[in-house]
Amino acid sequence: MKNKKLLIFGDSAFAEIAYEYFQKDSNYQVVAFTLNKEYLTKDSLFDLPVVAFENIRELYPPSKYDMFIALVYNKLNRIRISKYNEAKIMGYKLATYISSRAFVWDNVSVGDNTFIFEDNTIQPFVKVGSNIVIWSGNHIGHHSEIKDHNFISSHVVISGFVEIQESCFLGVNSTLQNNISIGKDSLIGAGALITKNLPSGSFVFGDRSKPADFSTYTKFKINELE
Fold first, then answer.
1. Number of domains comprising the chain
2. What is the pLDDT of residues 130-176, one digit of tens each?
């Protein structure tokens, strides 16, 4: 039974996917999409209105509607972080989705605006923060902690007792050894094997196990996350 009403921020492929999952595998009824006025290109999506974010509070007040920020990892998650913070300041409760086809142990904690796709295995005592996307088919080992604003793609192996600090990106088929820490604002490329702690801003690609000689701050022209 659908007993909650949901707004989705975005109209991209991820927004369309989020619509499908929330509609068919949650207690939420999606009622509208929203974007900042300057990015509006259509009036409707899936026969639902697409409205300006600047007007959303008057049309769909936070006392009656929840919201999900359906953005991915652009500028190392910075755009998603910005909209997440804006929506919370406006008073919206931000929805979390956990696929009914994911294995999530009952003592795993999960924050708000987090989207966990199917075929993920999340073992006991894991802590998953807020504003996180965990795409399909990952293994997250026991006692690990994924802090806020991260994006984990597919078929990533995170071993036990791993700490992933804020605003990182983990590429497809990357592997993290147990008992290590990944510094905030790090990008780990597809297929990378990480066996040691990484400092903040690390950019690791290919099959290397050490950071590149430039940081994510240089690569993406961003400032260190406060």
1. 2
2. 999 999 999 999 999 999 999 999 999 999 999 999 999 999 999 99
Residues 188 and 120 in one domain: yes
Distance CA 28, CA 8 (A): 11
Are residues 62 and 100 both part of a single domain? no
- CA 38 to chain CA centroid, nearest Å: 24
Confirm whether 114 is domain-assigned.
yes
pLDDT in tens, 22-67: 999 999 999 999 999 999 999 999 999 999 999 999 999 999 999 9
Read off the CATH number of the domain in which 28 is found. 3.40.50.20
Residue 111 within any structural domain of the chain:
yes
Query: Degrees (nearest 5) of the Cα angle 60, 130, 77?
Result: 90
State the residue range of the domain holding 36.
4-89
174 and 206 Cβ atoms separated by less than 8 Å: no
For the chain, the straight-line distance linking the first and the last C-alpha, in angstroms and rounded, comes to 41
Residues 6 or more apart whose CB falls under 8 angstroms from that of 56 comprise: 7, 34, 90
